[in-house]
From TrEMBL:
<protein>
    <recommendedName>
        <fullName>GDSL esterase/lipase At5g14450-like</fullName>
    </recommendedName>
</protein>
<dbReference type="InterPro" id="IPR001087">
    <property type="entry name" value="GDSL"/>
</dbReference>
<dbReference type="InterPro" id="IPR035669">
    <property type="entry name" value="SGNH_plant_lipase-like"/>
</dbReference>
<feature type="signal peptide">
    <location>
        <begin position="1"/>
        <end position="23"/>
    </location>
</feature>
<dbReference type="GO" id="GO:0016788">
    <property type="term" value="F:hydrolase activity, acting on ester bonds"/>
</dbReference>
<keyword id="KW-0378">Hydrolase</keyword>
<comment type="similarity">
    <text>Belongs to the 'GDSL' lipolytic enzyme family.</text>
</comment>
<dbReference type="InterPro" id="IPR036514">
    <property type="entry name" value="SGNH_hydro_sf"/>
</dbReference>
<keyword id="KW-0325">Glycoprotein</keyword>
<keyword id="KW-0732">Signal</keyword>
<dbReference type="Pfam" id="PF00657">
    <property type="entry name" value="Lipase_GDSL"/>
</dbReference>
Length: 385
């Protein structure tokens, strides 16, 4: 009954948001965009079931706080992309790779956990890296767009597919890059990682240009978060010197590189604006939102940001939802009692509560360039009043 109640509530909220978005007020002299669909490209921060469908299904307790069962997300509930869909009055995105119960009428999600911008020479099994890098996700989108146009003319399931003319009216979200830095932390010196960033972002820029050539016009681009604040870097590596961490337990050098990545990403977005004359590109400072939460965790009702809700990460490590033999006994990576007060779900991914907090701080446009809410992200710039 609890799960049923959540579903009903979500449905009511969605209906409210549909009406609210369609009747949204003019902001900065701009009308709401009324996006008919979302197309998302990214990694596990926005994967709603892609890697789970392609390989092993995401196990419980993932999904326990909202869906009542595993939903393909590495989280106890919803991700930022889910709150974006709610805000725009659209259904949650089905993963492109999932063949069961999918509906692509209002968009599709090409993100997969472990994805990188630049293709890697490692495999998902040895390093947590997805074979579905950004270029592969674009191949998937190309095929999706082409086959959708063909299928709507012949398929009885055309009601589950987007209308071809709506591709140019949709919102295109890119939330990727964290894993490119993660690979670098394992394999390179800090100077080598910094030197690799321009090439990574050249690949990113090429992806945006390809989407533009395919008709995409409205882009919502997330920068990468404070990767040095992820607890995994404190539990699976030797303890860093106290002078190398900030007051919130974040590794300074990792965050410095993330900020350098973001600075160059913003420069790249500015350049793309001058090159793609009909595109509206919004740069979203997710780093600021996430670090704002981490640095104010106590005042926002959360525990220490280095505490992990799911799994066992003290004298030994058992991954969230997994079983391991420890000293002859089987140990389960169980969840905490109340995920709503934790920021970290499993040492890498955020809890639903943290995702909700971050979403609330980016969707209004206060951390965006241009400073427009997501409902106005089809507009190229703010009109001067």
């Amino acid at each position: 009954m609890e799960y049923f109640g959540r579903v009903v509530l979500a449905g009511l909220l969605l209906l409210f948001r549909v009406g609210n978005v369609r009747g949204a007020e003019v902001v900065n002299g701009l009308a709401p965009c009324n996006f008919p669909a979302i197309y998302n490209f990214g990694d596990s921060n926005s994967d709603t079931g892609g890697i789970s469908a392609a390989f092993q299904r995401t196990p419980p307790p993932n999904g326990q706080s909202f869906f009542g069962k595993p939903s393909g997300r590495v989280c106890d509930g919803r991700l930022i992309i889910d709150f974006i869909a709610e805000n725009l009055g659209l259904p949650y995105l089905s993963a492109y790779l999932d063949s069961i119960g999918t509906n692509f009428r209002h968009g599709a999600n090409f993100a997969t956990g472990g994805s990188t911008i630049r293709r890697q020479n490692e495999t998902i099994f040895e390093a947590g890296i997805s074979p579905f890098s950004l270029d592969v996700q674009l191949w998937h989108f190309d095929q999706f767009q082409e086959r959708t146009s063909e299928a709507r003319n012949t398929s009885e399931d055309s009601g589950k597919l987007p209308k071809p003319e709506e591709f140019s009216k949709a919102l295109y979200i890119l939330d990727i890059g964290q894993n490119d830095l993660s690979v670098g932390f394992r394999k390179m010196t800090d100077s080598q990682i910094r030197a690799s960033i321009p090439d990574i972002l050249d690949h990113f820029s090429a992806a945006v240009q390809q989407l533009y050539e395919r008709g995409a016009r409205s882009f919502w681009i997330h920068n990468t978060g404070p990767i040095g604040c992820l607890p995994i870097y404190r539990i699976y590596s030797p303890p860093p010197d106290p002078g190398l961490v900030d007051p919130y337990g974040c590794i300074k050098s990792h965050n410095d590189i993330a900020m350098e990545f973001n600075r160059l990403l913003k420069d790249k977005v500015m350049k793309l604006r001058s090159e793609l004359s009909h595109a509206a590109l919004t740069y979203v400072d997710v780093y600021a939102a996430k670090y704002g939460l981490i640095s104010r965790s106590n005042s926002q009702g959360f525990v220490d940001p280095q505490k992990i809700c799911c799994g066992h990460h003290e004298s030994y490590h058992v991954w969230c939802g997994q079983n391991a033999m420890i000293n002859g006994s089987e140990v389960y990576g169980a969840p905490c009692g109340d995920p709503s007060i934790y920021i970290s779900w499993d040492s890498i991914h955020y809890t639903e509560a943290a995702n909700h907090w971050v979403a609330n701080h980016i969707l209004d446009g206060s951390l965006s360039d241009p400073p427009l809410p997501i409902t106005q992200a089809c507009h190229k710039q703010v009109h001067q009043l």
